[in-house]
Structures are given as C-alpha cells and as structure tokens.
Amino acid sequence: MKTKIITIEGIDGSGKTVQFTRLCENLRAMGYTVDTRSFPDYEAFFGRQVGRYLSGEEGVAATDVDQKSMALWFALDRWEAFKTWKDGEYDFLIINRYVLSNAVYQSIRDRDIGRPDIIDWVFELEYGHFGLPRPALNLFFDVAAERAGQNVDRKGFRDYVGEGRDVYERSLGIQERARNMYVAAAERYDDVCIVNCMDGAAMKAPEAIAEEVMELMRERGVIDPCARCDYKEDHAE
After folding, report:
1. The whole model's pTM is what?
2. pLDDT for 91-128, tens place per residue?
3. Virtual CA dihedral for 185, 187, 190, 193, nearest 10 degrees?
4. Domains of the chain and CATH, by start
C-alpha cells in the first residue's frame, strides 16, 4: 500500500479530535500530503442510521442491538466512504475512529458482559470481506474514563445527539471497559500503540501529547527521520 494510514482511537472524550488535527498539521508542515476521514460519517446514508441508534431517537438504542448487527452498521458506513478511495493519492490518510473502534465498542456493552469479544470477527468483516485498507498504526489515546466524561460534557451541541451524551457516552462502565479493551488490543496486535495522555490525575498538554505521537511514528519508521530536521527547524523560529 502506498498511502500510510494512521488511525486516531480512544474512548469518548479522550481528545481524539484535537490530536487528529495536530497530527495532520504536523505532517503537512513536514511536506507530506494528507487526506482525512472521520467515522461515523453522520451525513452519509449508513452513518445517519448509526447516529439514530447512538441517540436512541427511534426508540431503539445502539446498546440494545446485538453485537454483530451493530458492528455491521458501522462497517457499512466505512465501506461506503471507501468506494471511491484510491491508494497512493496522498502520503498519509489520517482517520478519526476506524475499524478498531468498532471492534472494541461492540465487545464491551452491558448486554455483552460475559460474552467473548468479537474483535477478530470485526476485523474479518471489515478488512477481509469489505476489503478496507489496514492501518500502518492505530494510535490509542489513553485517558481516564472519568476525566474523558468531563471532556464530553464540554463538547456542546452535536448534530446527531444535541447537547447531551450519546448512549455509549452516558455509561461510565462502557467507557472503562472500552479503555481496558483498547489496552488489551495493544498487547494483542503489533499495530496498536498506546499514547499515555495522563500526568497523574490531569491530562497532559495537547502539545506534549502531539510531540509524543511524532516521536512514536519516528520510532516505528512511519515518517522519514530526515523530515524531523525540517519540522524542528520550522517550529524553532
């Protein structure tokens, strides 16, 4: 694959959107070309239905739908978005929530406690059956669930849910289990990397987290080490 795919993952309120934006800016400052995606796409056909399930507006909430059926809605949203994607048009594709997010959240809801996780099934569905491209790295931004919930409350109005939390965000138990599942995935898969965003009980500064991401990508050989010099020089002025 010519385009390197990097995904931004984490529980709700972990600062993903901030780091998504910073990563794109940093890569472009190095001279790389960058494309972006964000899921669910609430303006697309399948993404709109996902939004309805997450808000519970039609009387059926995402937490009430069986694992594989809910996973399929999320997967179809990505399948639709990638129908026109061409590998090699950009150096990087940065994605805010991708396949790993689906695998994690459909494995840890209240109704699924005690059942085996479906991570491998979701990977087979999205990467195998739908043929979605695999990431070079899945970056998991690790934030304490309670602090992440406070961040969610600061988001304000969102089209798919309004001013409040969606059905996943309202459950501290779901968020804690999701965090644990992400950590387990990092131990299970080489392409899942943990980015520690906490300094004790407080979150690290966004700038510090962003620099840790760049260092991690250099260590993994995802970005050219020579680009580091250009980046440092541009930001030292």
Report:
1. 0.84
2. 999 999 999 999 999 998 888 888 899 999 999 999 99
3. 70
4. 4-236 (3.40.50.300)
